[in-house]
Design goal:
The complex is a heterodimer of chains A (468) and B (90). With 468 residues, chain A is an alpha+beta fold. Chain A has helices at residues 16-32, 48-58, 106-116, 136-152, 158-176, 181-192, 448-466; strands at 3-11, 37-42, 60-66, 69-70, 73-75, 81-84, 97-101, 121-125, 130-132, 194-198, 207-225, 230-243, 253-261, 264-273, 278-287, 291-299, 302-305, 308-313, 315-323, 330-343, 348-361, 374-379, 384-386, 388-392, 395-399, 403-406, 413-421, 431-439. The longest helix of chain A is centred in the middle third of the chain and has 19 residues, at 158-176. Chain A is elongated and about 115 Å long. Chain B is mostly helical and 90 residues long. Helix content of chain B is 66%, strand content 7%. The longest helix of chain B has 20 residues, at 3-22. Classes of the chains: A alpha+beta (468), B mainly alpha (90). Chains A and B meet through helix 1, strand 4, strand 9 and helix 6 of A and helix 1, strand 1 and helix 5 of B.
């Protein structure tokens, strides 16, 4: 009894006609390879010895044959004769379905296969199969699609395959009969000499039932602080996979689990689904900062088949766990203590700024820290420079070095002062604060003297440009 | 000449040849009709846009042929001639 799940595909490519056809047969292979055990014989493998041994090895229910042919012969790579009337043992043919894209083979070879050797069905052409390269998708693409559909259960029988091609080729004839009648006539010719010999109800897949799946889960999180620096996080997940259409629980499948930590893939593993469902645990040692764990549970689609194919459409399920900060939150409170102009020149004047600050916890209590746990930076008109930090009782002061500020300021200049606290004590979380210190505008537009000066500058500039 | 008109001429001659072949005449005996068919087919091809004349015809018994080379081959290759007459003369 030929095996329904096994297929042999013969796909030669050695001269222009077969090279044009090759991708369309390969497309069938690609369409069905996930669902069938395919004995694929491309190019140099499309020869008698290999094809015959594949048939003996796989005992396939169906064969897809492509290549040059004649009434009593089918050939593969470099016209290697694979089947010839009178030279084929019955066991290679009996009970099988043959889909043969070749010229003339239905005339004698197909009949011989069905009537003398007991093939279940044979779809082929009784005359030359002709095609135009400019319309190859419509000629060969239609066949490729129809034959794939037979394997995927979308066309139940070989008779339906015949009808599908017949209908499509008729449509293409109608489409091209005015503009390219010589091309259109070939659609009619190929349509009319396509033959199904044997049982038109022959089928590869009896029926395909589509089932959708849904992953259900529950999870618990244990987040244990081992120290101020380290925690042990554990997410326990259990659940089941429901078949939406029947409400049954799916078993004997494998889920893929991908765990993302703060958006990056941390680990992946497989989880079997058994009678009662599935369960797994994700354990991780982490620091005590905030983290996000995302667990993606994936069931890929699959087929279960014998006489009837049950196709299960997969599902994806996401669990998100947020681990909180396990340190004491801190905050910097900062203020300006002193802004002092040191010198005036053009275009910049130098200033000296002193800021004060303290660090408090979430309840407002001052935290006792040291100078070297801070970084203070000032930004003037030219860039960043660091400041020196001094401790005064429980607060701090940071003094800038000489800051360069534009001497003429039509609007306030903002000096940026950033204070970063990197605690040595693991109990505390870092903190960051930015203080904007304005150096006020020094141009009074209401003062007529300002306008007179601007006028003089403009006049001088004009004189210089006219008298070089 | 238009595509439709030149094509109807091709079909008309192809049908004539086909009928004669079915009645048992040999290809050699149909030489004049063959030349007429080839001329009509050539005229049809010339009525097509330039790019359509470059199209290729293929089948799984022989080689690929450029459309504009088909008329010449129809005079030389009996099998090809018979095939085209059968397809177009139905």
């Amino acid at each position: 009894m030929p095996v329904r799940k096994n297929v042999v595909i013969v796909n030669p490519a050695f001269e222009p006609a077969t090279e044009y056809g090759y991708p369309y047969i390969e497309r069938i292979y690609k369409n069905i390879k996930d669902f069938y055990n395919v004995g694929y014989c491309p190019k140099d493998d499309a020869v008698k010895d290999i094809v015959w041994s594949k048939i003996k090895e796989l005992d396939p229910l169906s064969l897809v044959l492509f290549g040059h042919g004649n009434t009593n012969v089918y050939t593969g790579q470099n016209y290697n004769i694979i089947f010839r009337v009178g030279e084929v043992p019955k066991e290679l043919v009996e009970g099988r379905i043959f889909l043969v894209l070749s010229c003339l083979t239905a005339k004698e070879l197909g009949k011989h296969f069905v009537e003398d050797l007991g093939a279940w069905a044979y779809l082929g052409w009784e005359e030359e199969y002709g095609f135009w390269v400019s319309h190859i998708e419509e000629f060969l693409g239609t066949i490729s699609t129809a034959w794939s559909k037979l394997f995927l259960g979308e066309l139940p029988s070989i008779g339906d395959v015949y009808d599908y091609i017949y209908k499509k080729y008729t449509e293409y004839y109608e489409k091209y009969k005015e503009k390219e009648p010589d091309v259109a006539e070939w659609f009619l010719w190929d349509r009319d000499y396509m033959r199904v010999i044997g049982d038109k109800n022959a089928h590869v897949v009896k029926e395909v039932k589509i089932y959708h799946t849904k992953i259900h889960s529950q999870h618990t999180v244990e987040d244990t602080k081992i120290s101020w620096e380290e925690r042990e996080a554990s997410v326990k997940v259990k659940g089941y996979v429901e078949v939406v259409e029947t409400g049954e629980r799916l078993k004997d499948v494998v889920l893929k689990v991908k765990v993302f930590l703060d958006g990056r893939l941390d680990t992946e593993f497989d989880v079997p689904v058994k009678e009662g469902g599935f369960d797994f645990e994700y354990d991780r040692r982490l620091d005590t900062f905030e983290h996000t764990i995302q667990i993606k549970i994936i069931l890929e689609g699959f087929d279960r088949s014998n006489e009837v194919v049950e196709r299960y459409v997969g599902d994806e399920h996401l669990i998100t766990v947020r681990l909180p900060l396990l340190k004491t939150k801190t905050k910097i409170i900062a203020w300006t203590e002193k802004v002092k102009k040191k010198s005036t020149s053009m275009p910049y004047s130098t200033y000296n700024i002193v800021v004060g600050f303290k660090v408090v916890d979430e309840h407002g209590n001052i935290i006792n820290v040291e100078e070297d746990e801070f970084t203070v930076e000032f930004r003037d008109a030219t860039g960043y420079s660091s400041g020196s930090v001094k401790k005064k009782d429980s607060t701090f002061s940071a003094e800038s070095y000489d800051l360069l500020i534009p001497t003429i300021r039509t609007k306030p200049f903002l000096v940026e002062c950033s204070i970063t606290y990197k605690p040595r004590d693991p109990r505390y979380a870092p903190a960051y604060e930015v203080l904007w210190i304005p150096i006020e505008s020094n141009v009074n537009w209401k003062n007529p003297t300002v306008w007179i000066i601007i006028l003089i500058i403009l006049l001088l500039a004009g004189l210089l440009s006219t008298n070089p | 000449m238009s595509v439709v008109r030149s094509w109807s001429r091709v079909k008309e001659i192809a049908r004539k040849i086909n009928r004669e072949l079915v009645l048992g005449k040999s290809i050699e005996a149909l030489r004049d009709l063959r030349v007429e068919f080839v001329k009509a087919y050539e005229e049809y091809i010339n009525s097509l846009p330039e790019d359509k004349r470059e199209d290729m015809f293929g089948h799984f018994r022989g080689k690929l042929i450029r459309k504009k080379d088909i008329p010449k081959l129809l005079l030389e290759d009996d099998k090809l001639f018979e095939m085209f007459v059968r397809v177009y003369g139905r």
